[in-house]
Design brief:
binds adenosine monophosphate; 31% helix; 425 residues; alpha+beta; Dna Ligase, domain 1; five-stranded parallel sheet; 14 helices; binds glycine; Rossmann fold
């Protein structure tokens, strides 16, 4: 059997986890990660490549006999990397630029949900300050305001009163806080409930669900502080019972495939629905992402007991109906360790200590790190995601936090309650 070379695009914890999991496949020779991080720099059979533009990546894929490419983050998808690779007959796992609008534009996404009867909060969209302000004056609080475009998880505010709402739209429209990503906003009703991440693989016609999970988006314990990209996740999410799972597939996921077909497009790749299970027990869609979640990927792939290469290959061949994903019958938890200042700014170049003392049941996925002169240094906001797994969630929690406490760098910050959402349902 000729072993294959794989290319992964991105530099976060999600991409480290994707590369690590695919590298375990018997079908794989070498994994290249563009640009990767300190973790992918030092894994067996994984090599970082310092390439960034789509045309550089296409040339690299052709010259290095890349069997398929997997795209981690949303930005290259929104920029059309899938369309361009396919135009060069290169296999790539992800949605097209058109389908990626489900994540890259909240206005597109909400209109799509409305057109396809996908349950979601009632909303209006606005492209100027005065109309948004007048609308806010007539609403009840809390009220949710979202910048239209990509903002790395930071473009959403839950305003508790008129002043907070006005401050946010002033930042967006008058101070240009999010650049062109803030040229429009969506203002929507606040939904009370319990959140879960529902991630699937889609090959155009078939859906292969990944294990469910729960992210912790706020910076601080007990869900206070600003929204972040995610401070930790646990897998699976007990709130997603078997009947809830089916309801989410029927009411939220399948309509996405059908909705794109009606528009003459085909969705392929990972699809992530951010779900709020409301107080009546109905799943509401908070958002769609056109990729795997970060940090959800890390605990989800740690629990995956199947060959991820084979799952993606089946997806590329439109054969997801012919393959099953097997999961370890355990709970996994991933705790993010972030640098000082995250999510606003990040302090870089601090030496990370303690990474080598880890037990076998712990895996450290790197995100904002680099490897220089035999040392790992911080290089971004979310620095590491420490993952562990056990039969009982409480044991996974104990194990993961014992590991976190061995790690040390200047001014590191992490939440101490990751996993509680799954314990206290
Ligand atoms: P989004 O990027 O749209 O998922 O929003 C980020 C976070 O804001 C979500 O994970 C939720 O915690 C919260 N959120 C978004 N929309 C709503 C809503 N309509 N009601 C309550 N919370 C929300
Ligand atoms: N963890 C949330 C996201 O990946 O968007």
């Amino acid at each position: 059997m000729l072993k294959k070379n794989i290319l992964i695009i991105g530099s976060g914890g999600r991409e480290h986890a994707l590369a690590w999991k695919i590298s375990k496949s018997k079908h794989v020779n070498m994994i290249f990660v563009a640009p990767g991080n300190g973790g992918t720099a030092t894994e067996k059979n994984i090599t970082n490549i310092n390439l960034h533009t789509i045309s550089e990546l296409i040339t690299f894929a052709k010259q290095n006999d890349i069997f398929f490419t997997v795209v981690g983050p949303e930005v290259p998808l929104a920029n059309g990397i899938v369309d361009e690779f396919r135009a060069h007959d290169l296999k790539i796992w992800g949605p097209t630029k058109f389908c990626a609008q489900l994540e890259s534009s909240k206005v597109f996404s909400k209109a799509f949900m409305l057109a396809n009867n996908i349950p979601t909060a009632k909303y209006q969209s606005f492209s100027d300050y005065n109309s948004a302000k007048n609308y806010i004056a007539q609403q009840n609080f809390p009220l949710v305001i979202k910048a239209d475009g990509l903002a790395a998880g930071k473009g959403v505010v839950i305003a508790n009163n008129n002043t907070e709402a006005i401050n946010f739209i002033q930042e967006i429209f008058n101070n240009n806080k999010f650049g062109s990503a803030g040229s429009k906003v969506v203002i929507e009703e606040f939904i009370q409930g319990v959140e879960a991440s529902f991630i699937v693989m889609v090959d155009g016609n078939n859906i292969l669900p990944m294990a469910t999970s729960q992210d912790n988006k706020r910076l601080l314990d007990n869900d206070i502080g600003p929204n972040t990209g995610g401070m930790g996740a646990s897998c699976p999410a007990p709130i997603v019972t078997q009947s809830m799972h089916q309801k989410i597939i029927n009411e939220i996921i399948q309509p996405v495939l059908d909705g794109f077909k009606k528009l003459g497009h085909t969705y392929t790749g990972f699809l992530y629905a951010g779900i709020m299970i409301d107080t009546k027990g109905n799943p509401q869609t908070l958002e769609f992402n056109c990729r795997f979640g970060d940090p959800e990927t890390q605990p989800i792939l740690y629990r995956l007991n199947s060959d991820l290469f084979e799952l993606i290959e089946a997806g590329l061949n439109c054969q997801l109906d012919q393959i099953k994903a097997q999961w370890f019958n355990q709970f996994s938890i991933g705790v993010v360790i972030a640098s000082q200042g995250y999510p606003n700014i990040s302090r870089n170049n601090d030496i990370i200590y303690g990474l080598e003392q880890m037990p076998a049941n712990v895996k450290i996925f790197h995100a904002g790190t680099k490897y220089e002169n035999n040392q790992y240094l911080t290089n971004g906001g979310r620095v590491l995601c420490v993952v562990s797994m056990a039969d009982k969630l409480a044991d996974a929690q104990t194990q993961v936090y014992e590991a976190v406490k061995k790690i040390n760098f200047n001014c590191m910050q992490y939440r101490t309650d990751i996993g509680n959402k799954a314990i206290f349902i």
